[in-house]
Amino acid sequence: MNPAAKTRAALMPLFLIALGVVGIENALTRYFAVAKWSEYGYWIISIVMAGFALSGVVTALFRDTVERHGRLLRTVLPAAMTLAAAVGYQWVTANAFNPLQLQNPTTWVEQVRNIGLYYAALLPFFFLAGLYISLIFVLNPREIGRVYGYDLIGAGLGSALALGLMFVVHPFLLAPILIVPLALATLFQPGRLNWLGAGLAGAALVGAEAILFLGPAPAISEFKSVYAPMNTPGARVVAELKQPRGHYLLLENFTERVDADISNNAGMLGVAGPPATYGLYRDGARIASLPKPGPVDAAYAPSALSAAPYVLRPGADVLLVGLSGGYRGAEAMALGARHADAVEGEPVLHSALRHGLGPSPALTVDPRLNLLDGGPIAAAWRAGPNAYDVVEVSADFVDAAPANATGVTVEALSAYLGALKPGGMVSVSVSIRDFPVYALRVMATGREALLRAGIADPSRHVLVYRSAWNARILISPTPWSAGDVAALKAFAEARSFDVSWHPGMDVTAARAGVFNDLPSVSFTTGEVISDGPNDAIANEARAVLTGQPTASSQAFNIRPATLDRPAFYSSLKLQNLSTLIRRLEVLPQAEIGALVNVAVLAQAAVIAVLVLMAPMLFRRRTNGVAEPRRVWPVLYFPALGLGFLLIEILLIDKAAFYLNDYSSAFALVLTAMLIFSGLGSLIAEHIRSRPKLASAIGLLVVLGWIAAMRIGAEEFMMGTLDQPVAVRAMWVLLAAAPVSLALGLPFPLGLTQIGDGRMLPWAWGLNGAFSVVATPLAGLMSRDIGFSSLLVAAAVLYTVAFLVLPVGARLSRRAPSPVPDTGASERLEPFPAIEQPA
């Protein structure tokens, strides 16, 4: 067998292990999304990297022993991993963790214990996986680029395989399938013990599948919104879709109705209530009503909160941002709209409107209603000025898909305002059943959009009215007239809605006639502040619209949402952490993700510090050779771990906006970056004799790419939003490829500089430890500072890594020092020894 063939054969087991490990990581995150909440999937990333970091430290501490028993470990570890993965997954699905009880001060202790049990269940598997990868690094120190390249490419294809399987199998069945590559790895192990490894892995695979299929089946927890309707007598699933973006169920039972905010006076107005529908759920969360066969019944529309814009602008031309399963289009027609263009950002909802879903029919052909492709900003840009009288953002649009949050940013509202006719309006619905703060934040976003349009006094261009559950913010580029205000007041009074703001409003007088009491709440004390009928939005509307501080702005983030900082549910000020913990029981579920990030970051920081301290425990000799002291790796490898993840998360977010689909963006970017970085690592193997020069080239590419993203990415995306999704996906790949190739260079170049002693596995663990830190840190930075901060931080980190990397090593003519027999004949073909600089 020639050297190249030996190399491929020796690294094939590593490729399969990496493929299986990342596949199982994806399976676990999907389990959390379906059975719990998706934000708790951050724990999986934390556990993965904690296991890898711990394995790197253990390998470093016992490097000689690991190398001495390398052949045996390489033989038995795949079987051990296979069993550990099955047992860990089974324990995870049996865990009684309840996020809602975590927010209850009397039950949170038990839930913290359950979180600990997640770590106890999964850490052994990821530790063993990390130990195997560390072992391959130790056994092949002169082939670092190839080892790391096979590891990354295997991980990238594992992610792609997991995503492909999500189209055909239930999320709970992903893990049983994705443990198979772990066992198959033994079939490619070189050496005389491969038959033993194959037998052990085969037995382990049979045992693992028995554990997974004969044990208790995973189930959706009872606190998910799908649980009650699924367990209603007579309920049935009429359609099911399996996709990477979610597990979709279309349910039929008597509880499913149009989710519309209807006046309590509907009967007095002679208006029928909302009709029965199907309910569409994604990962256990309800995202829309879908109509049953037959004409769509929107007779309830005149009593709905959303009807006011059509009363103020009869015969309107409308842009509907979110169709709520088709009912918003039917409502607009029932309310007298002349024509409506509509966009639906959630891909499955869009497809259901086009083609139907199960027994739910496609949109009825109506020349007055036109369903557009693409996102809302692209639709407004394509339409141009003087296109619409009303741009309406539906009540459930933001929650229907993660990427939809960009539809209520300053940039989006600016695009909507630019598409209006004179006297037109943008109507944005926002839920206030959890926090009235969300309405104030939409008002602040609208104010900023008006200021960017050159309007000096935004308070004259905003109307706010509400029910007990939702508020509508009406924004117009022209000042509201007295006739508009009078018409809105009459509309609201007839339906027992409340007007919370109009130009010149007397808040004291308005409070006296409130239909739906909305008292102010002190978040610090948890006390309701009310001295009679109250309207918490009216109390602060003038201050928000004039840019003044308010009581809410002291406790929460009342700031405009932008494309750089689009997270809608980001009102918590994390610097007030002690207060947030005391008030945990009243926080909306959507806000908990930030607190999970804080908890994971704190844990990750502890792990990173412990890994940094590991060299203090190293014995001074490795295979009889003194272990040199080095300081530069303490900066170099953490910088790479942080910088890579910051760029990856930035790319995923921008691609999610560009493709209007977070799941597709995640899959495309993650797979592309891993594979191209793996190719970059393979390239590094051929240029490792000039590490400083190669690192400089990589740094220039990274910094040039960051500069291009900062200067021209947003303008380019805006200019190509109307292109087909396949073309936009190609642009995402082209954007990811060059920077990913460059990002694949520094890590193997640094490992070749560090030698083959204890610091080799320690450096790999250190990189993993700071990758744990990077994930929650990036989430918090993008939430509070903006995604652009990730680019700045990445540029600094990669510059620091370049500066601390030693000047370079030169190829030595000396042969490698002899080492004990560890199966060296089964290693990869060695390169000449590298002499470390003094």
Give the termini distance in whole angstroms. 38 Å
Which range best describes the helical content: under 10%, 10-25%, 25-40%, 40-55%, 55-70% or over 70%? 40-55%
Mean pLDDT: 85
Strand content: 5-15%
Uncertain spans: 809-838
Number of helical segments with 4 or more residues? 31
The strand count comes to: 18
Shape designation? globular
Structural class: alpha+beta
Cα gyration radius (Å) = 29 Å
Q: From the structure provided, what is the oligomeric state, counting identical versus distinct chains? A: single chain
Report on the biggest sheet. Answer: 8 strands, mixed
Question: Largest sheet, order of strands side by side?
Answer: 7-6-5-8-9-11-10-12
Briefly summarize what is shown:
The chain has 838 residues and is of the alpha+beta class. Helices cover 54% and strands 10% of the residues.
Describe, in plain words, how this protein is organized in 3D.
By secondary structure, the protein is an alpha+beta fold. Helices cover 54% and strands 10% of the residues. It contains 31 helices and 18 strands. An eight-stranded mixed β-sheet has the order 7-6-5-8-9-11-10-12, with helices on both faces. A four-stranded antiparallel β-sheet has the order 1-2-3-4, with helices on one face. It has a two-stranded antiparallel ribbon with strand order 13-14.
